[in-house]
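Late entry, written up from scratch paper. The run itself happened at the end of the previous shift, but nothing got recorded in the book at the time, so transcribing now.
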Amino acid sequence: MMPVKNWNVDFESNINAKQQPIYENIDLLNEIAKKLASFQPIASFDKILTLRQKLANLNEDSFIIQGGDCAEPILNDPTTYGRKTEEFFNEITEILKAKYKKTIKIARIAGQFAKPRSQKYETINGTTFEVYKGDLINGFEFNKEDRKPDPLRMIKGYEHAKKIYDLNLDFYTSHEGLLIPYEASLIRQKDNHYYSSSGDFIWIGNKTRFINSYHIKLFSKVINPIGIKIGPSTTKEEIDFIVNKLNPNNENNKLIFISRMGVKNIHKKLPSLLKYTQKMNYNIIWICDPLHGNTYKDENDIKRRSFNDIISEVKLFFNICSDNNILPSGLHLEMTYENVSECVKQNEPNEEPYLSLCDPRLNKHQTLELLKSL
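Output as recorded:
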């Protein structure tokens, strides 16, 4: 087990550890970090290895489908939530069978509790509190107590994630590895290998994947496959840093680049990055996140995504990869089995509720329609 570090650090002033909350009670934070370090691992070392093996054997008959909530709610009893997610993935697999022999199912679940945010604060009717950063950090309700970062939430997040994982559901778990005290405290060691026990697959987001990022350094020693969100601002120098840090041996089952360019940028930005990774002979698995680059606010200041833009970016991604002799290996979706109206479909009324804790998700019918279009 890795030793627990002293988390008495102002992360927001540390340029290498972005998107970290400021906790008022540092002693409590350190106490919680030590408790987490003593707990049983959530993810299974052996299951992580099986995922690596499947990624090593990707081909044109394989498809990675990664998806789930934008911000996962922390629940006292997440059993129903987990089983409904499994049922949804089984429906998705049936759709994908028409084109792909092997489906690798990776849910955004059992840890997708922390969200990077563009703004630190939110103001409503002249009152300002910290922005909601995910249930692992603070609460959704707009009041002072809920919005205050609370280290005790990490214990609740662990308990929820452990219950989900122990259901032995038919998918791998994944989340963005954002909150450093939580993630570092759940790194474990087995057979002379370090692994992140917080989930099977961890990704590093667009806001934390820069050169000398603390997040990249933190996950540089673990054997889990690591995803990297690749946006319009990604540079070749960043790619060099990412690959050299996270995959120095250039293994073919370690790094997944998750393209999230947006339909307006994908033609301008993606081809040159694909060409560069080829030129450098980097072993990269490429999948597409067609939601994050296509977010806008409607006339009521509510976040939306156009279903047409999502479909268009997926098609462009597959075509651009094909034109550059790169295997497009799958999709990363913010989606839900619930009947919601969050992503906007042309000529379709928004009659269902908007339930997302953060960004708009594809509902069940939109998700299945997207997959049928592949």
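Confidence is low (pLDDT under 50) at residues 1-13.
(Scratch paper discarded after transcription.)
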